[in-house]
Design brief:
The chain is of the alpha+beta class and about 200 residues long. The chain contains 5 helices and 10 strands. Strands 3-4-5-9-8-7-6 form a 7-stranded antiparallel sheet, sandwiched between helices. Strands 1-2-10 form a 3-stranded antiparallel sheet.
Length: about 200
């Protein structure tokens, strides 16, 4: 009996060693895979630092014409239109040359320009914008240097009856020459309108 007891214990130990391994818990396997996947995921970058920027201010175009690489002022209640295109749609104004006009019951404005590289004297274009039968320079020609531009201005004696007061000016900007003219109802209007137009004038070459 003493010999049988150790033998029985040995047989039980051998049988337990040869038994099939226990089937792993499927839920535990899933949990391990999920945990390993989460550990392997890349970490989120830190949130960007907020940098405040000023909000853009809307550019007010009231009383300002901008096209053909230049800008010029005009009264807010009228607007320039392309006189070249109105006369002939096939030859509208462009960078090289152009004619604009603006009109209402009490005012007429006209602007012309021409590419003339190397020209510093704009008088030839001032002469071109005047009507020989209607516009006669009055007084001396006013010559100024304004923001690096050679500027001419003259009051005009006009034969227009409804808009009897007139003035014209011309200036150079880069490789182009500009000329401007107005007919108005008030005597002080032409010079004031010219100064306003030129104060807002910019020319991108």
């Amino acid at each position: 009996m003493k010999i049988f007891a150790p033998f029985l214990i040995f047989c039980l130990f051998a049988l337990s060693a040869c038994a099939a391994p226990a089937t792993p818990d499927i839920n535990e396997q899933i949990n391990q895979i999920v945990a390993a996947t989460l550990i392997a995921l890349p970490k989120d970058p830190p949130p960007p630092t907020y940098t405040p920027y000023p909000s853009p201010t809307p550019f007010n175009l009231a009383g300002l014409f901008c096209e053909y690489q230049f800008c010029i002022g005009h009264p807010k209640d009228i607007a320039f239109f392309d006189l070249s295109a109105q006369k002939n749609p096939l030859t509208p104004s462009g960078y090289e040359t152009g004619i604009l006009a603006a009109v209402n019951n009490s005012l007429y404005l006209q602007l012309i320009w021409q590419r003339a590289p190397g020209t510093s004297d704009p008088k030839f274009l001032l002469d071109m914008i005047l009507f020989p039968q209607a516009d006669t320079p009055s007084g001396n020609l006013d010559v100024k240097l304004i923001r690096g531009m050679n500027v001419l201005y003259t009051a005009l004696n006009s034969t227009a009856t409804t808009l009897p007061y007139s003035g014209a000016g011309a200036w150079t900007c880069g490789e182009r020459v500009f000329a401007w003219k107005t007919y108005a109802q008030q005597a002080e209007a032409p010079a004031a309108l010219f100064n306003e137009a030129l104060s807002k004038f910019t020319c991108g070459e």
